[in-house]
Amino acid sequence: MINPVLPQVLSELRQHPEGVSEYYLMRTLDRQHAFDELDADGLLALFRKHFIIMNALYDLQDILWEEEGRVLNISPMHIELHKSRDKDDRVEPNPLLSEYYLDWHNFEQTTADDVVALMEIVTGPRH
Hints:
By secondary structure, this protein is mainly alpha-helical. It has one domain. Helices cover 57% and strands 6% of the residues. It contains six helices and two strands; from the N terminus they run H-H-H-E-E-H-H-H. The protein has a two-stranded antiparallel ribbon with strand order 1-2. A hairpin with a 6-residue loop joins strand 1 and strand 2. InterPro entries: DnaJ-related_N.
């Protein structure tokens, strides 16, 4: 599947050479109605938005390196696209994260219950 927000994410990265956060991308894409077709609400909708953004970023990381020799650094707090000085600048993606986010089955098969369980692992059980 081709990520429908990939062009918008790339446009935002090019417009902000200083970098952006995932939150900024999510807010911007929301304003552009990029997520209007999501069939989810609550935490599942948040997970799906996050997944779509991360999928686009990991996809772009490879595309931009191969086509333009540009490096895309990815973290939730700071995502930055910059020119490479040489081939040693290549950022190797975190293999577990990139593998997870590039597999659309993870997007399709994750349920609201899965997201709640994940949140409990991260934040502790809700009382």
